[in-house]
């Protein structure tokens, strides 16, 4: 098949491709679940996975949930946040929706030009008497200025809850990224660096939160007869936990595969006029979760590049466009001009295909299409 004079590939290249363990390995992991008939409600597999993640992520406490979004909503609930929270609109819908669905008001702070995380220099002017927390996003796997955020939070008595959906396995100065702030939410969705098909976690330092999370994700119950909290159902099943146990055995080698693809992208695209890449961060063990490229002053604009890629069967995505403050469900509620950098980047960015077994030839094909366009 031909499109636009170029050959359309038979197998499309999607922006991500979920990692799966060998099927036999997963079947072996499922066997005890079949034997015991213990399928959900904090069974042995989810306990085992939580323990393994504690050491893998280098954090003190881990609680597992049905997905990252519910984990974020329950973290907001466990922290008892009220009033306003400072966050960024340059993220997936989940971050802003979790805040609004919890009855809080998001106050949007702009992002930095270089790594698209929250611009710490702009936080303090947004703090009011109603502010209870900062909810920054480690977007694409790029780590926020955790020291700067910590200093502001301490000074003003604010909680810090990181949206860490993209930073599985990332370390800063040898510390697990989930050990910063009061809590961090990780997503284990199928499309993430580490997946349990659907799933998520919250990591935190204060062990007192563990019992609260256990109750909140199990309808707010404490045992069979007491219901002290208005909770929900957000449990990770044993079948999903088993997938996590298998995938965790392969995550490091998969991150190495992502790294190979990223190095090739950087080799091909770095320094090209009008193409902006994120620089590798100093002192950070990266996970190569996403590969965002900003087209600013390139011979084609972002949408034209995307159309060229699509013609070839390459499905890059506009992560993250539009900014959440401009969603139609929030019409009239926010002033999108207040975050000009986020607005500008969102109109120019493309996340290029990236996954652990993306062939170098496929990376070259993506780059050839962009550069030869
Ligand atoms: N915070 C942030 C910053 C997040 O990015 C996310 C999720 C969350 C919070 C919430 O965490 P979760 O509640 O999801 O655990 C996808 C993911 O569904 C979503 O988890 C992720 N962020 C977001 C960035 O990407 P969509 O709407 O782009 O999904 P979709 O269906 O278009 O799939 C993306 C690509 O993956 C397509 O090319 C198809 C491919 N794909 C997808 C699935 C589901 C597969 O190849 N296999 C699959 O099974 O949101």
Explain the overall architecture.
With 373 residues, this protein is an alpha/beta fold. The chain is built from eleven helices and 17 strands. The chain has helices at residues 23-36, 44-56, 68-79, 93-101, 146-156, 209-216, 238-248, 251-269, 302-311, 340-346, 360-371, and strands at 2-3, 6-7, 13-14, 61-65, 84-87, 105-108, 131-135, 159-163, 171-172, 175-176, 183-187, 200-204, 275-277, 284-285, 291-295, 314-315, 349-352. The longest helix is centred in the C-terminal third of the chain and has 19 residues, at 251-269. The chain is globular, with a radius of gyration of 21 Å. Ligand T4K binds at residues 14-18, 67-69, 91-92, 94-95, 137, 163, 165-166, 187, 189-191, 200, 315, 319.
Strand content: 15-25%
Number of E-type strands: 17
Which range best describes the helical content: under 10%, 10-25%, 25-40%, 40-55%, 55-70% or over 70%?
A: 25-40%
* Straight-line distance between termini: 19 Å
The total count of helices amounts to 11
Radius of gyration: 21 Å
Q: Mean of residue pLDDT?
A: 96
* SSE sequence, one letter per element: EEEHHEHEHEEHEEEEEHHHEEEHEHEH
Question: Main beta sheet, described?
Answer: 7 strands, mixed
Q: Which residue ranges are poorly predicted, with pLDDT under 50 across at least 5 consecutive positions? A: 1-5
List the bound ligands.
ligand T4K
Query: Order of strands in the sheet with the most strands?
Result: 4-12-11-8-7-5-6
């Amino acid at each position: 098949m031909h499109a636009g004079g170029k050959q359309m590939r038979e197998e499309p290249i999607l922006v991500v491709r979920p990692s799966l363990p060998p099927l036999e390995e997963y079947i072996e992991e499922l066997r005890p679940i079949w034997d015991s008939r213990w399928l959900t409600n904090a069974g042995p597999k989810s306990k085992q996975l939580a323990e393994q993640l504690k050491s893998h992520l280098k954090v003190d406490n881990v609680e597992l949930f049905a997905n990252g979004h519910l984990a974020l909503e329950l973290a907001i609930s466990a922290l008892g946040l009220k009033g306003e929270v400072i966050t960024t609109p340059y993220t997936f819908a989940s971050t802003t929706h979790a805040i609004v669905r919890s009855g809080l008001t998001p106050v949007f702070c702009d992002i930095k030009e270089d790594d698209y995380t929250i611009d710490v220099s702009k936080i303090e002017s947004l703090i009011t008497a109603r502010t209870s927390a900062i909810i920054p996003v480690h977007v694409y796997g790029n780590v926020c200025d955790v020291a700067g955020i910590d200093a502001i939070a301490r000074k003003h008595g604010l909680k810090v809850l990181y949206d860490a959906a993209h930073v599985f396995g990332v370390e800063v100065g040898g510390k697990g990224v989930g050990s910063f702030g009061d809590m961090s939410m990780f997503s284990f969705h199928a499309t993430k660096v580490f997946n349990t098909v659907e799933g998520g976690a919250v990591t935190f330092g204060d062990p007192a939160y563990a019992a609260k999370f256990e109750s909140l994700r199990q309808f707010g119950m404490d045992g069979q007869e007491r219901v002290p909290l208005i909770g929900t159902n957000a449990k990770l099943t044993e079948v999903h936990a088993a997938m996590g146990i298998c995938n965790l055995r392969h995550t490091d080698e998969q991150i190495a595969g992502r790294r190979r693809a990223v190095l090739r992208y950087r080799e091909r695209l770095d320094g090209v006029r009008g193409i902006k890449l994120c620089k590798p961060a100093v002192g950070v063990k990266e996970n190569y979760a996403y590969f965002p490229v900003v087209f600013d002053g390139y011979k084609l604009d972002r949408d034209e590049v995307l159309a060229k890629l699509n013609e070839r069967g390459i499905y890059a995505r506009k992560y993250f466009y539009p900014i959440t403050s401009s969603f139609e469900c929030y019409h009239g509620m926010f002033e999108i001009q207040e975050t000009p950098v986020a607005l500008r980047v969102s109109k120019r960015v493309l996340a290029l295909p990236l996954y652990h077994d993306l062939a170098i030839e496929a990376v070259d094909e993506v780059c050839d299409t962009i550069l030869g366009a």
